[in-house]
Amino acid sequence: MKISRFVKMASLAGSILFSSLSFASAVNIAQNDVAIHGYDPVAYFTQHKAVEGAAKYTATYEGAIYRFSSAKNRDMFKANAAKYAPQFGGYCAMGVALNKKLDVDPDAFYIEDDKLYLNLNKAVQKKWLEDVPANLKTAYRVWDGIETLSVADANAEE
Question: What's residue 30's pLDDT?
């Protein structure tokens, strides 16, 4: 009887863990569920540069923890998280256009139409900037198909 109950509990715990991992794949998070490698998403808009956030100023959005360089930035984010959160769950925008979920370099960013886009690195960002309108059109179309996929599934070779 105790073994049966243990198996049921272990199965339930496993399914909860699996479902939370599936959900988390829509947002690019690192250790401890921190997004953008701990950089302040509001600073991209207000200071026009990548600024590291502090663990004492945080807010949660779509299952990810965002860090901020000040209480003011945190409060701005809380008031309108959808405006400041990076597009494509914080995955590389060019990667999404190529049907991949790739990590980002917080210094490789671009703001277009008041939306934040991040890229894998400066070289990839250079490619992204060659044709932003076409890359955006492709990335938004592709994102609908890969948003809920795990990183491994999205990046698997066909």
Answer: 86
